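Ex. 9. Protein: GTPase Obg.
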Amino acid sequence: MAAFVDRVVLHVSGGMGGHGCVSVKREKFKPLGGPDGGNGGDGGDVILRVDEQTTTLLDYHHLPHRHATNGEMGRGDLRHGKTGETLVLPVPDGTVVKSRDGEILVDLTGVGKEYVIARGGMGGLGNASLSSQKRKAPGFALLGIEGDSRDIVLELKTVADVALVGFPSAGKSSLIAALSAARPKIADYPFTTLTPNLGVVQAGDVRFTVADVPGLIEGASEGRGLGLDFLRHVERCAALVHVLDTATLEADRDPISDLETIEAELDNYAVDASFAGVDGTVVPLNERPRLVALNKTDMPDGAEMADFVRKELEGRGYRVFEVSALTREGLRELSFAMAELVQKARDAAETVPVDAPVEVVRPRYATKTEFVIRKEERNLEPLFRVLGEKPERWVKQTDFTNDEAVGYLADRLAKLGVEDQLFKSGARPGDAVAIGEDNAVLFDWEPTMSTGAELLASPRGTDLRLAEFSRPTRDQKRVEHQERKDAQAAARAELEAERKAGIWTESVNYKHQQGNKSE
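Predicted structure tokens for GTPase Obg:
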């Protein structure tokens, strides 16, 4: 039997985007046919999806690290990289997704509901996509960036209409077995129920689900026993049923004291804001409709105890039912009372108007504020930090080993208005400027944005290999040929004049004379 796990910490990360390709088309009779580098593929997303076949979070307890597929790199001949495959993680119905800080991200209820928990990284553009009228042959491409990476908490909260709460061995499992087709484990020792059990009950025309919550004890809301782990399974329920043991053998317990103890634990438990009603209000557990089931009245002392405490409970405003899971006495009346509370809750939810939120479709990386500049201090010197989704993403896409790519980044930042904003923020030439928070790129700012592209052999965005040269005409070739012939004739005439003047002979005799002297 698989273990029941209802809370796990999951580490998810989207796939990394593939790098763009730098390539120039080369074919026979078409030398240097232009850039044809393909784009890199986007990384795969990580999606949580409610699956009716999944009932526990056990798989994520054993394998808490999940990573989507990376996008492939672009290639030449305009071959774009393949997009990474989406990783779909099935979760049970009723899973609440939280951040590590406790912030509720989404409440996954309903089979098929999805939530993208980590998006894949954007693939880099190849040099074919970066070409333009001014940049006809880019010698660089953009890099792919990493996908989202985050740690989340998955909490399973049972989806039920009515919850049975009470002390251990109060008979909750026996009741749910008698009311429905559920067959939970039943034994005569405390904490027999270690996992919530669900059962479907039909009362007239109303069908609803009942949850058997593991036994609660005093201090459960503070972590004692199993209560803290399973009180959250009561949060979704519209009504509660206190199951009180009228035949307990413990001398310090009775139905009234058990009820007061459980009510105190319900008072101390804070309900998540994700379980607000359709009107936006959160109903605490102690304010929800409640019934009292005096169980085990088939026992000799049970019937007497039920008669003794019934008036006291009714005086406190509870509807009291004397039941027996063994003889099934009073179960029909109890089931119809539960169905009445469930139907009232459903009718109230239908009558409250719900303003459907208007979905605003925005580009994937669109933000309202492009960037902000924060003035800091580093080593008693001013530091200007540029923060924004676009600038930080552009830095990740830049290959800083390529001067042309760095120049392209400078153009993008200037077009975004970073340079003008630095002027307004009081930056001076030579001040340190950092882009990003973690792993920031640091450089000394110059108003001209000189980042190395000016040192290229040709203007940025051009290629001398692709420059067009005019072919000389036939007359121009004749003139050039005649000029070369005239230059050769003049050189020969100069050498002949030197020979006739005896310069060469003297030079030879001089060397011969020097040789005789050495002998």
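Check your answer against this statement. The chain has three domains: 7-156, 162-351, 372-466.
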